[in-house]
C-alpha cells in the first residue's frame, strides 16, 4: 500500500463548510466573515463578550530541531483532535506559514500526516492575505521615510542611521544588502539598504502582540525607523504614517478560522520566526481561542529555548497569559542525531548515542519545569524503527525529572493517536497547578536580561557583547528602553550560537553582535552569532517540485 504524502491526505479529506466549524466553536453568524467555503475571519467584537469565560491554555514546544524532524505542529493539531476525541471542547491556535520555508527547505506549517489543518494549500500559500498586508504596511513606512528625506528632510534624519528595512515574504539572499536611490536626484537619496523576510519585520511582531485596533495604532506609532543627526529617534508617528499603515492592517488583524482534518476549529493567525523574532501566533487569536474553547492548544516555534522562552517571557508578559500545561515534543531519531548519529543511520538501535543526545531534551524539560515552574509532559513521536529499549530509556530519564512521557502516533492515526497525550494534558491542567515565573524581571538591565536567558535557558557560562552592541545598549537605556524584554535572535539548531554544537553544550560563551530596539513590538532584539534576518534558498529548493495540473490541483507542496 502506497504511503500518501501530506498534500494527498489533505486533498482526499472532505472538509466541512466553515459555517459548520464556526457553529461548533460557538461563533455567531454576525461575527463570521467567510473567505469562500472553507476559510473565514472572525470579528474582534467577539472578544468583548464578557459571558464567555477563558478556557485552559496548553503550549506545545519541542527539543532543539534536527533534520530528522520532531513534529511539533503535527503534535499540536493531534493533541487538539485527541482532546476532542475524549469529549473536550477544544480550539487550536497556530501560526501562519511563511512562503520562504514553503518554497525553501523546511516546508509549510500546516501539520502532517493525519494531523493537519486544511485547506492545506491555501494556508501554506496566500491564505487570506495577512502576510501581504503586513509586507505592504512595512514597505509603505519605508517609502514614506525615504520620501521624507527626498522632500527636504524636515525631521533632520541621518541617512546613515536609518534602521528600517524593506521586506518580502521570500527567501532571497540577494536582497540582504542593497544600495538604492541611484540614478540621479529624482530617484531618491542614494544609501545602503536591505530587506528582511516579512516574518522578521517589526510590523509582524506588532501585529501579533496587539490586543485591539487602538493598541495596534499605539504600537505602530512607537516604531523607531532611524535617528536624526543629533542622535534622537525618529518614529512612524513622526512621519505621519500610522493611519495609512493601520488601514492596510485592519482586516488582517481579525483571526482566521479553518479546521483540522477531523473538524476541530483552528485559528491560524500571524507568524513570526522564533529564531529571529518572538515566534508565536497572534495574541488576538490566542485570546479568541480561549474564549471559544474549554481548552486552547497553541505552539511556539523551533525549540523551547527559542519559541517557548519568547512565548513565556515576551508574549505572556505582554498579554497577561499563563499556560496551564506545556507539551515538549521529541523523537528518538532526533535525540540520536544530537548524540552524533548521521541521518542515514537513525533506523538502527543506538542506546549510546541516545544517552549522548538525551541531555538536550532534559534541559528543555528542566527549563519548563524548574525555571518557568509550569507542569509539563514529554510527547514522544514514535517511529516504526524506535525500539522498546530506546523508548524506555527516554521515559526513565524524564521520570527522574518528575515528568511523564506519553507516546504519540498522531501523524499516522490523527486524534486517535493523541488520546493518551490528551488525557495527560487534562490531568496536568486539573491536578498540577504551576507557579509561573519569568526567567528575568522587568527591572533587570538589558545586559542582565541577556545574561539570564543565556545562562538559565541556554546553559551558557558567559556572554560576550561586542563594543558597538554595548554602546547601543547604553544608548537605548538612556532613551528609556531599558525596561523592555529582550528577544534573542539565535540559531535554532543549538542551545548555543554555534549551529554545530549539538546536544546540551555547557562550556560556551554566547556572542552578541548587535542590538536593535523594536519599540512598537515592545522588546529589544539581540542578534547573536551569525544569525540573519533574510534566509536564502537551498541548492535544491522545494519550489522546484511544486506544480499545478490543468484542473488546478497543486502537487509537490509537501
What's this entry about, in short?
With 558 residues, this protein is of the alpha/beta class. It is built from 18 helices and 25 strands.
What is the number of helical segments per DSSP (H or I, 4+ residues)?
18
Fraction of residues in helices?
A: 25-40%
Number of strands: 25
- Structural class designation: alpha/beta
3D shape: globular
How can the largest sheet be summarized? 12 strands, mixed
Radius of gyration: 23 Å
Question: What this model shows, in words?
Answer:
By secondary structure, the chain is an alpha/beta fold. Helices cover 35% and strands 19% of the residues. The protein contains 18 helices and 25 strands. Strands 1, 2, 3, 4, 5, 6, 14, 15, 16, 17, 18 and 19 form a twelve-stranded mixed β-sheet that branches. A four-stranded mixed β-sheet has the order 20-22-23-21. The longest helix has 21 residues, at 130-150. It starts with 5 loop residues before the first helix and ends with a strand.
